[in-house]
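Can anyone check this?
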Amino acid sequence: MRCYEDGAIAYGFNTMKDKAVADNKGSKRLAASLTLLPLNEISDLIRKEVALIGFTEVLTFILCSKKENFAMLNRKGDKSKVVIMGNPRSSDFEAVQTSLMPGILKTVTHNKDHPKPIKIFEVGDISILDDNRDVGAKNLWQLAALYCGANAGVEIIHSLVDRVMEKNGISFVPPGASRDIFFKRDILFIYHLEA
């Protein structure tokens, strides 16, 4: 097996072509692809860009408590959209995150003795209930970034958003134009998203 792996590395995984193979029942199917899926490819590119800006990636659990999902974030969101675990092992893992913020804030809480500023980000999945899906829920992909320091650091987060949007070819929309994204705080980012 090791020889095949060395040969594949020498030849180059990305130069191998996908081809249809026949299984034992005679039906043809596509062999497992060695190329990245589009979502994995874009998430890797975004991870790289955010890391180059100076942020550190964190990986958190996708499960959290109901309290962390809403009360601790002061969110009054639609609790009927939360995917609840049927038989959780503990109260810390009773629901699927509807936002990446509970995990990223928990990371800062456990690292508050770390030298400031703390610049962290996470790229990952969240889940919400959706009756239109065959499994009853859908996964959404999100990017969350957090800056924790002595000053507000709005310019740091603003530059991060600008860089990610620029790299994805999403143009800035001046105030007064159509609004597709609106963050309701002291800062307003407006970008035009096309399907």
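Reply from J.R.: I decoded it. The chain has two domains: 1-34, 36-150.
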